[in-house]
């Protein structure tokens, strides 16, 4: 951060120890009121709130023109937006980063969701008193844990990856069909309801579904409760209470000792019996309503959130303000600017210059194009290849005529110039070729390697026959040359057969 700003001021509790060596321009303050008074840009995690140490609300401690970058959740905190606009502060909401490729590096919401999804599986494992991975031991056979993850956003995908790596059988459900491929790529089974409705909402998040879809969804979850051991719910809708997905009657189907982790507990919960911030037992099932999952991995969360904030500070440095005569200007606070032509800053700035910009600052939602199914793509490719391979009717007729003319010419030449003894030999050769071709091409592909080994015997017979023919006193004949060529080709075949056989046998050797 010091590469972008002239001076950093950090407020830390007295109990925290940090290494301040070799950090120039860093001032550490322990008085919160002094920090709010001195800084121009305040970087924090939680939205401004009432400070028990000072006895005042943090917005009241801020001064006019101050920039506060934090999670805000503007849809749920309209009073906070009004308070910040009255105080004349500028608010950059870390939860309003637009879902575009360029802004992924400062998407703190995804960072915290990833940590939370990972931690949800760890918390579930600590309360689930069985193996995740299936085990076969002298003490018995134990099946793998079955995990159902509802919601395949960033948190859900992180939970899928973690549970799968622990050896569990993972199933996932999401109202957005576009995430099916991502779920299956992680090795999980994607569950679907037999109801055509797309749940993709604004910003890539899920939207509220119809009553008919929800009814079908409830039936699916109720059936899954009979089979799974662990349920992790991650479904949230921005600006609205979390949808209820696991209802109280479904607990009758859950096995005793099962675990349910409700990651949406902070916004009302996806589970009907969830108690915010508490771990309870309901009908023998452990229900975790934890709201601090990312905080339970403080070191990892701090690293990721700190990186997001660093990229935010880098984003507000507008190098267009640098003088043109300077060839390579450095990125410093001198060029700090809230450029609302920058789509990232425009979407994140919810309060500015005494005005509330949200929800008008939200980027317009463009629904994703429906992705064709893999089967459809494969069928289209097969049809295209088939069309390319199939020649026209005229070309086929010409090809057939040319083939039969060639065969007739060969037959005439043989009849005119070949000796009488050649005809029986040719007949035997033709019959052997047809039979051999038919047998070889009807062999199962898995047996091609051992088949090459067996053909060594046939090639040996060919060599013996060739040696007999070239042993005649009159060696300067066509028969002798053909026999020599047969010996050469058969020798190559034998050498290749032995090489393949050797490689095949090595597969069965133990080091």
Summarize the topology:
Layout: E1 8-11, E2 26-29, H1 32-38, E3 41-43, E4 50-51, E5 56-57, H2 58-61, E6 67-70, H3 78-87, E7 90-93, H4 108-127, E8 135-137, E9 140-142, E10 146-150, H5 154-165, E11 169-173, H6 180-185, E12 189-191, H7 211-225, E13 230-233, E14 259-262, E15 279-282, E16 285-288, H8 298-315, H9 343-348, E17 349-352, E18 355-356, H10 374-389, H11 393-417, H12 422-441, H13 448-470, H14 478-506
Parallel strand pairs: 1-2, 3-6, 6-7, 10-11, 10-13, 11-12, 13-14, 14-16
Antiparallel strand pairs: 4-5, 7-17, 8-9, 15-16, 17-18
Helix pairs in contact: 4-5, 4-8, 13-14
Q: Describe it for me?
A:
The chain is an alpha/beta fold. The protein folds into four domains: 8-96 and 316-356, NAD(P)-binding Rossmann-like Domain (Rossmann fold); 107-298, Rossmann fold, CATH 3.40.50.720; 391-442; 444-511. Helix content is 41%, strand content 13%. The chain contains 14 helices and 18 strands. The chain has helices spanning 32-38, 58-61, 78-87, 108-127, 154-165, 180-185, 211-225, 298-315, 343-348, 374-389, 393-417, 422-441, 448-470, 478-506, and strands at residues 8-11, 26-29, 41-43, 50-51, 56-57, 67-70, 90-93, 135-137, 140-142, 146-150, 169-173, 189-191, 230-233, 259-262, 279-282, 285-288, 349-352, 355-356. The strands form five sheets. The protein has a seven-stranded mixed β-sheet. A five-stranded mixed β-sheet has the order 3-6-7-17-18. A hairpin with a 2-residue loop joins strand 15 and strand 16 (285-288). The longest helix is centred in the last third of the chain and has 29 residues, at 478-506. It is elongated. The two termini are 55 Å apart. The model is unreliable at 1-7 and 12-16 (pLDDT under 50).
């Amino acid at each position: 951060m010091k590469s972008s700003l002239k001076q950093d001021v950090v407020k830390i509790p007295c109990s925290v120890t940090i290494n301040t060596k070799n950090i120039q321009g860093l001032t550490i303050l322990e008085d919160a009121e002094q920090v709010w008074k001195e800084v121009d840009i305040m970087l924090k995690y939680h939205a401004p709130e009432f400070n028990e140490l000072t006895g005042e609300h943090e917005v009241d401690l801020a001064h006019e023109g101050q920039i506060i970058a934090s999670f805000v959740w503007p849809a749920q905190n309209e009073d906070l937006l009004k308070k910040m606009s009255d105080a004349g502060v500028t608010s950059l909401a870390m939860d309003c980063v637009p879902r575009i490729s360029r802004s992924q590096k400062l998407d703190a919401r995804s960072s915290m969701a990833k940590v939370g999804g990972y931690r949800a599986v760890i918390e579930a494992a600590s309360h689930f008193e069985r193996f995740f991975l299936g085990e076969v031991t002298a003490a018995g056979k134990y099946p793998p844990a079955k995990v159902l993850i509802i919601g395949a956003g960033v948190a859900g995908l992180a939970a899928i990856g973690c549970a799968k790596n622990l050896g569990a059988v993972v199933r996932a459900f999401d109202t957005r069909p576009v995430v099916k491929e991502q779920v299956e790529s992680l090795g999980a089974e994607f569950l679907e309801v037999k109801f055509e409705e797309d749940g993709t909402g604004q910003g890539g998040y899920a939207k509220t579904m119809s009553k008919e879809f929800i009814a079908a969804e409830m039936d699916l979850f109720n059936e899954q409760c009979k089979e799974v051991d662990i349920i992790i719910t991650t479904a949230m809708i921005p600006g609205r209470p979390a949808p209820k997905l696991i209802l109280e009657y479904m607990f009758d189907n859950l096995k005793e000792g099962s675990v349910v982790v409700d990651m949406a507990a902070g916004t009302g919960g996806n589970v009907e019996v969830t108690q915010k911030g508490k771990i309870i037992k309901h009908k023998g099932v452990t229900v975790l309503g934890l709201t601090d999952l990312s905080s339970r991995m403080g070191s990892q969360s701090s690293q990721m959130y700190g990186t997001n904030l660093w990229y935010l500070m880098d984003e507000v440095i507008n190098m267009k303000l640098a003088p043109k005569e300077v060839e390579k200007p450095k990125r410093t606070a001198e060029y700090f600017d809230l450029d609302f032509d920058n789509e990232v800053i425009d979407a994140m700035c919810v309060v500015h210059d005494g005005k509330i910009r949200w929800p008008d600052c939200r980027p317009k939602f463009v629904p994703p194009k429906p992705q064709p199914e893999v089967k459809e793509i494969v069928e289209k490719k097969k049809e295209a290849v088939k069309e390319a391979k199939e020649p026209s009717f005229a070309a086929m007729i010409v090809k057939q005529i040319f083939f039969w003319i060639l065969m007739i010419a060969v037959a005439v030449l043989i009849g005119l110039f070949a000796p009488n003894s050649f005809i029986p030999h040719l007949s035997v050769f033709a019959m052997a070729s047809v039979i051999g071709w038919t047998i070889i091409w009807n062999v199962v592909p898995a047996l091609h390697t051992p088949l090459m080994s067996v053909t060594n015997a046939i090639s040996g017979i060919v060599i013996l026959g060739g040696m007999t023919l070239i042993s005649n006193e009159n060696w300067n004949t066509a028969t002798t040359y053909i026999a020599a060529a047969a010996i050469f080709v058969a020798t190559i075949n034998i050498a290749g057969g032995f090489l393949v056989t050797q490689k095949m046998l090595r597969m069965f050797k133990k080091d």
